[in-house]
Structures are given as C-alpha cells and as structure tokens.
C-alpha cells in the first residue's frame, strides 16, 4: 500500500500537465516553461493565471494573463472568470485550439479557473466539476477563499 502511494506521488510530480477536456490542459509554471512539451501536445494558447509566473514563450503561443495573487492575497479570483471564459471559449472554438491553463503549481489558482470553466461551459455542479478535474489531476487543492468564490459563482 505504501509503495503504491509513493508511486502515485512520483507520477503526479513528474506529470507534465493534465488534459481535463479535449484540448484543455491544466498544469504548473514548470509545465508552461517546457517548450518541447507544449509543442508535442500541440498547445496553441496559454492562459497564465498567476501574477508571479512569467510568460515563457510569448512568441510561440497566444497568451492570456489574469494576474491572480496566490495564498488568498487576491481580492477575489471570481473577478477574472469572465476574461478566462472568453479566452478559453475562443481558443477551444478553433478546430486545432489547445490551451494550457497554469499558475505556479497547477493546484490552486489555475485549478480554480478550470473548475469555474467547467461549471460555466459544461454547466456542471461544483461537485461534478471537482470530481472530473480530480480524476485527471489528483493534486488540485484550491484554497478556502477560492472554494468560496466557486460556491458564489454557481
């Protein structure tokens, strides 16, 4: 049992990013920095949710920037949902559109945006969106403030 748990942790640590829906990927700043991996997955757009992670390849992809502060220091992540939804809708409307949504760790801010997007675009409940994303990226962990923002957004 312990060996299985350690294997899962190692798998999560080395996972580049997680495909949540066809063409919609959730990952970390580290994932966003890896040009070859982005190209291998045919990413066309990058939605940078963080205020503390640079746009690593601005000439290679179409970027959206939300500038959300981490650790509950932001005034409210819900304020960026309309901008995020418009960016994601536009990117995914293209036949070849593939988007990486990221923050620093791919667990809090970007996960919150992806959860909100599933609630918006797929009309999922928060519980269903959470279960769906968690089944593809086990390490999501939106902070309490962001969870409250998701509850208020439904």
Cα-based radius of gyration, to the nearest Å: 15 Å
Portion of residues in beta strands equals: 15-25%
Distance between the termini: 38 Å
Query: What is the CATH superfamily label?
Result: Protein tyrosine phosphatase superfamily
Number of helices: 7
Low-confidence residue ranges: 9-14
Q: Helix-strand pattern, N to C?
A: HEEHHEEHEHHH
CATH class: Alpha Beta
Strand order of the largest sheet: 1-2-5-3-4
CATH structural fold name: Protein-Tyrosine Phosphatase, Chain A
Please bin the fraction of helical residues. Answer: 40-55%
Mean pLDDT, to the nearest integer, reads 92
User: Per CATH, which architecture?
Assistant: Alpha-Beta Complex
Number of domains: 1
The largest sheet is: 5 strands, mixed
Structural class: alpha/beta
Number of strands: 5
Explain how this protein is built.
- With 154 residues, this protein is an alpha/beta fold.
- The protein has a single domain, classed as Protein tyrosine phosphatase superfamily (Protein-Tyrosine Phosphatase, Chain A), CATH 3.90.190.
- The chain has helices at residues 2-14, 29-33, 35-40, 81-93, 109-121, 126-136, 144-153, and strands at 17-21, 24-27, 45-50, 62-68, 99-102.
- Strands 1-2-5-3-4 form a five-stranded mixed β-sheet.
- A hairpin with a 2-residue loop joins strand 1 (17-21) and strand 2.
- Helix 4 crosses helix 5 (109-121).
- The chain is globular.
- Residues 78-148 form the Tyrosine specific protein phosphatases domain.
- InterPro entries: Dual-sp_phosphatase_cat-dom (IPR000340), Prot-tyrosine_phosphatase-like (IPR029021), Tyr_Pase_AS (IPR016130), Tyr_Pase_dom (IPR000387), TYR_PHOSPHATASE_DUAL_dom (IPR020422).
- Belongs to the protein-tyrosine phosphatase family. Non-receptor class dual specificity subfamily.
- Keywords: Hydrolase, Protein phosphatase.
């Amino acid at each position: 049992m312990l060996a299985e748990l350690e294997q899962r942790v190692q798998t999560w640590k080395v996972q580049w990013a997680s495909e949540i829906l066809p063409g919609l990927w959730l990952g970390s700043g580290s994932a966003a920095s890896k040009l070859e991996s982005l190209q291998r997955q045919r990413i066309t757009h990058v939605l940078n949710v963080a205020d503390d992670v640079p746009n690593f390849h601005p000439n290679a992809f179409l970027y959206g920037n939300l500038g959300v502060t981490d650790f509950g220091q932001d005034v409210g992540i819900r304020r960026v949902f309309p901008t995020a939804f418009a960016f994601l809708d536009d990117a995914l409307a293209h036949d070849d559109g593939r988007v990486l949504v990221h923050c620093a760790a791919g667990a809090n801010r970007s996960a919150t945006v992806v959860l909100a997007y599933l609630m918006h675009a797929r009309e999922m409940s928060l519980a269903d969106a959470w279960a769906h994303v968690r089944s593809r990226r086990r390490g999501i962990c939106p902070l309490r403030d962001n969870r409250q923002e998701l509850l208020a957004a439904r």
